[in-house]
């Protein structure tokens, strides 16, 4: 039986520490939509690698500080 992995993220925490950045502000900084940010933050959508790097860049952190990969 194959193991199941889940992509996790720290977007909400990073938005808080970025002066309560809104989802809309993050969307604008990354060239995506607010709906996309909402879905990623809720764990309902996995971003493309390009968008994942743009999100990390928006916070000034490494991609591993935003996203993780957990065994479930």
Show the helix and strand layout:
Blueprint: E1 5-9, H1 11-17, H2 23-30, H3 34-41, H4 49-59, H5 63-66, E2 67-71
Antiparallel strand pairs: 1-2
Helix pairs in contact: 2-3
Structure summarized in a few sentences:
By secondary structure, the protein is α+β, with helices and mostly antiparallel strands. It contains five helices and two strands. 53% of the residues lie in helices and 14% in strands.
Q: What would you call the shape? A: globular
Distance separating the two termini: 13 Å
Low-confidence stretches: none
Strand order in space, largest sheet: 1-2
Q: How many individual β-strands?
A: 2
Count of helical regions: 5
**What's the CATH class of the domain at 12-61, please?**
Mainly Alpha
Portion in strands: 5-15%
Helicity range: 40-55%
Structural class: alpha+beta
Major sheet size, sense and barrel closure: 2 strands, antiparallel
Shape-level CATH architecture of the domain at 12-61: Orthogonal Bundle
Question: Explain this structure to me?
Answer:
This protein has 72 residues and is of the alpha+beta class. The chain has helices at 11-17, 23-30, 34-41, 49-59, 63-66; strands at 5-9, 67-71.
Descriptive keywords:
53% helix, two-stranded antiparallel sheet, alpha+beta, 434 Repressor (Amino-terminal Domain), 5 helices
């Amino acid at each position: 039986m194959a193991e199941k992995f889940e992509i996790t993220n720290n977007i909400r925490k990073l938005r808080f520490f970025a002066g309560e950045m809104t989802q809309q502000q993050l969307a604008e900084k990354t060239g995506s939509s607010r709906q996309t940010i909402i879905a990623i933050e809720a764990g309902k959508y996995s971003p493309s690698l390009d968008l994942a790097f743009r999100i990390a860049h928006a916070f000034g952190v490494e991609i591993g500080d935003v996203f993780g990969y957990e065994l479930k």
